[in-house]
Amino acid sequence: MAFTRSSKPSSLLLFALLSVVISSFLAGHASAQGKTGQVTVFWGRHKDEGSLREACDSGKYSMVIMSFLDVYGAGNKYNLDISGHPTAGMNAAIKRCQFLGKK
Predict the structure, then answer these.
(1) pLDDT at 54
(2) How many Å apart are CA 97 and CA 59, to the nearest integer?
């Protein structure tokens, strides 16, 4: 007794696969339409990255996160490690960033 294979299951599988691929493509395109154009940067770890004021004045970032807290929690006093960056003028730089609307 010979069995014949129907091409129907493979056609259905191909259709399902194409549907998933096309749906993924369209969903990706739709989500790209909702891009905010906002970029966040972590600032403070390396002196080569420039000053805080330079980061804010560059216009590249909508949010500048001052990092890195290297001591925190368990009742310890927080410590901001801004390796290599001078602390003089930091208050003015923060106020400048706020004035420019940086978060």
Answers:
(1) 92
(2) 10
